[in-house]
Specification:
This protein is α/β, with parallel strands linked by helices. It has one domain. Helices cover about 45% and strands about 10% of the residues. It contains 10 helices and 8 strands. The strands form 3 sheets. The chain has a 4-stranded mixed β-sheet with strand order 2-3-7-6. It has a two-stranded antiparallel sheet with strand order 1-8. The protein is globular. About 15% of the residues have low confidence.
Length: about 300
């Protein structure tokens, strides 16, 4: 995956709070898959942060570090081709450019969602959370939250090959949830049920499909400011990176790796095969209307 070296990055779409801390309280959740499931229960099933071992009582993040690394260092596509944090800025720009134009084409209005880069722990409208929960979208404040350390975990703990487009897939998936939120679909997962055919799984698979739809159009979507695509190259090898990442975070793969057995009745995200299938569906068709996982 390559970005236009001369393109200007819009860092206003990314809030860099790495290095800031949450004073007091207890902002901890169980590590690994336990933490991920805990956060999902909070986001989708209406469980309060205190019930999850999270804390929202008075725990607010301090103002962002004056360093504001992405604002200082992520200026152009050339920076995105060399730095992970700048790459995330560029992917966020590309994803939101696509959905802005797609909503407009469908006579709708896309409302932007910032990505918050944090380290260790962060305060959100969905409660305080640690890096253990992985990347997530909070519908309470309509923001995507990401600790860049997750991409190391994706390779070392979850067995993904990694790579730039694996990172892009993760970001595009979270923005798939934002699209669902804008369309009023995200609430379907709030029935408290789990399992291979649950609404929670269907919600996650649709976000995978939306990620594939963006990927299909990534090299043809013009940047809102320059009129040229921000992403100039997306190869078959890049797409394989995304598919590999999708499989690595399938419920069956995670359960087998961390608990030694697969229990489909507790699935919240779908199997490796399902996640690859729906990303491919979006990428092959390039049509969000073909992403109805609820039918």
């Amino acid at each position: 995956m390559q970005f236009d070296d001369d393109a200007n990055l819009d860092t206003s779409e990314v809030q860099d709070v790495r290095g800031s801390r949450i004073p007091g309280g207890r902002a901890t959740v169980g590590g690994g898959i336990a933490g991920l499931i805990a956060l999902l229960l909070g986001l989708f099933f209406g469980v309060g942060p205190d019930e999850l071992g999270l804390s929202s009582g008075g725990d607010t993040p301090r103002p962002a570090s004056s360093l504001q690394q992405v604002q200082q260092t992520c200026r152009t596509g050339r920076d995105a081709n060399t730095r992970d944090d700048c790459r995330i800025v560029a992917v966020v720009n590309s994803v939101q450019d696509y959905w802005t134009q797609e909503f407009r084409r469908r006579r709708g209005t896309y409302t932007g969602s910032p990505t918050v880069l944090f380290s260790d722990r962060v305060g959100t409208a969905c409660g305080a959370a640690t890096s253990a929960v992985g990347p997530f979208y909070c519908p309470g404040d309509r923001k995507v939250y990401l600790d860049l350390g997750f991409f190391d975990d994706l390779r070392t703990r979850f067995g993904s090959t990694g790579g730039p487009f694996a990172q892009a897939y993760v970001v595009a998936h979270e923005y798939g949830h934002h699209v669902q939120d804008l369309l009023g679909v995200l609430g379907r997962s709030q029935d408290g049920l789990t399992g291979a055919n649950s609404n929670s799984v269907r919600t996650e698979l649709q976000a995978d499909c939306y990620a594939g739809v963006w990927a299909r159009h990534a090299t043809t979507t013009p940047d809102e400011s320059t009129g040229r695509p921000l992403i100039t190259s997306l190869t078959a090898a890049d797409v394989r990176e995304g598919l590999d990442a999708a499989a690595a975070v399938g419920d069956d793969r995670i359960q087998e790796r961390f608990q030694g057995r697969v229990t489909p009745e507790t699935w919240t995200h779908g199997s490796a095969r399902q996640r690859q299938q729906w990303f491919t569906q979006g990428y092959r068709t390039g049509d969000m209307s073909r992403c109805d996982t609820f039918r």
